[in-house]
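STRUCTURE:
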């Protein structure tokens, strides 16, 4: 097939449910075209009842904004250090730098591809010995796979360091039956266009502490003190979610569980069709863990094979992508301290994210699998 004849298949594209436009229309009809209104409040309560555990949600303009406010509220400021999972998207680490603090990168373990508890503890001990206790830990549930919650949180509790749980990729995932986004002192969600649900762009800050939600709303709306004029005793941000975006979010919350089912069945399809090939392997869920399978990822046996698969897919107008390039390999973070074990470097060399949208058709999946089979056979 010629590239221009074949239908483009994206890695992960927006997937509307149907009632998004109804909520957006309501916003227009009632003139709530502003960064506040019934959809903003409604989306927050939809998220709160979905996640349970007494979590409070503040709807913000992006997941990155939520990370920025979250780190600030956990006390991170100029000159501090924050331990951050190295294998992640740059948005997990950038807000550390916005605050004038330095990320210290911690490698992954093989069971979940997320922060390695051993490396985390080594890092904490090292920093404490050097007289500089880290201010916070940014742990990520990558591709929807929950990190080792019990182990990571036990270490954080022992050394009394708060956790910022980056749940941007894991809405709908759970650990021992409890939803991701409820574990951290503060957690964040993202509703960017490529995530499991989208508001076109948006995010949320989550916490069991009502005070963090209230403070996040205060800071995200320019930190206005209670006065008839504009009075400010703190530096604020313009980070609140718009009522239009929140309308899209309300419609998307209605189809979230359906999206999780569809993404999980994409993964199952790839696994059933490709696991017989010795050059390809899959990351199973550890016991008690439920992944939303935001992206279906494979490990290939070599860098060369991964690149051959990626090029063959691209040649047929199909988007795939290497796993996240670890932050410790990024030029912008070259000077940061690291605690490494080789796991994320190896995953970056051999891993590939396959098309994973909840809007993929069966025939798309069949087409993708057959191209990969032709390479590995
Ligand atoms: C998408 C993402 C973010 C940032 O969310 P935005 O809404 O795009 O700002 C943060 N962390 C991870 C792991 C992400 O995948």
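SEQUENCE:
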């Amino acid at each position: 097939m010629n590239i221009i004849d074949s239908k483009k298949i994206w890695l992960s594209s927006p997937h509307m449910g149907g009632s998004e436009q109804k909520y957006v229309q309501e916003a227009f009809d009632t003139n709530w075209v502003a960064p506040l209104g019934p959809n903003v409040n409604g989306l927050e309560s939809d998220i709160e009842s979905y996640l349970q555990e007494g979590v409070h949600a503040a709807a913000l303009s992006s997941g990155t904004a939520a990370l920025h406010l979250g780190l600030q509220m956990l006390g991170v400021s100029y000159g501090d250090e924050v331990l951050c999972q190295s294998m992640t998207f740059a948005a997990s680490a950038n807000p550390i730098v916005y605050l004038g603090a330095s990320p210290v990168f911690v490698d992954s373990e093989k069971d979940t591809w997320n922060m390695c508890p051993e490396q985390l503890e080594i890092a904490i001990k090292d920093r404490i010995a050097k007289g500089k206790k880290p201010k916070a830990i940014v742990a990520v549930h990558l591709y929807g796979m929950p990190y080792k919650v019990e182990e990571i949180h036990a270490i954080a509790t022992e050394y009394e360091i708060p956790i910022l749980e980056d749940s941007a990729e894991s809405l709908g995932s759970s650990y021992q039956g409890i939803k991701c986004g409820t574990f951290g002192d503060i957690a964040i969600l993202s509703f960017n266009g490529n995530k499991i649900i989208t508001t076109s762009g948006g995010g949320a800050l989550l916490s069991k502490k009502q005070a963090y939600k209230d403070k996040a709303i205060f800071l995200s709306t320019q930190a206005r003190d209670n006065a008839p004029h504009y009075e400010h005793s703190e530096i604020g941000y313009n980070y609140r979610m718009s009522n239009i975006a929140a309308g899209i979010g309300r419609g998307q919350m209605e189809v979230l569980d359906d999206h999780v089912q569809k993404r999980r069945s994409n993964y199952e399809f790839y696994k059933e069709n490709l696991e017989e090939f010795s050059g390809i392997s899959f990351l199973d869920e550890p016991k008690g863990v439920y992944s939303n399978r935001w992206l279906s990822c494979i490990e290939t046996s070599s860098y060369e094979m991964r690149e051959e698969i990626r090029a063959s897919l691209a040649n047929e107008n199909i988007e795939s992508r290497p796993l996240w390039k670890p932050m410790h390999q990024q030029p912008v973070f070259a000077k940061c301290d690291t605690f490494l074990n080789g796991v994320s470097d190896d995953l970056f060399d051999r891993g590939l994210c396959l098309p994973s949208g909840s809007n993929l058709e069966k025939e798309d999946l069949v087409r993708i699998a057959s191209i990969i089979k032709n390479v590995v056979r």
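REMARK: The chain has a mean pLDDT of 97.
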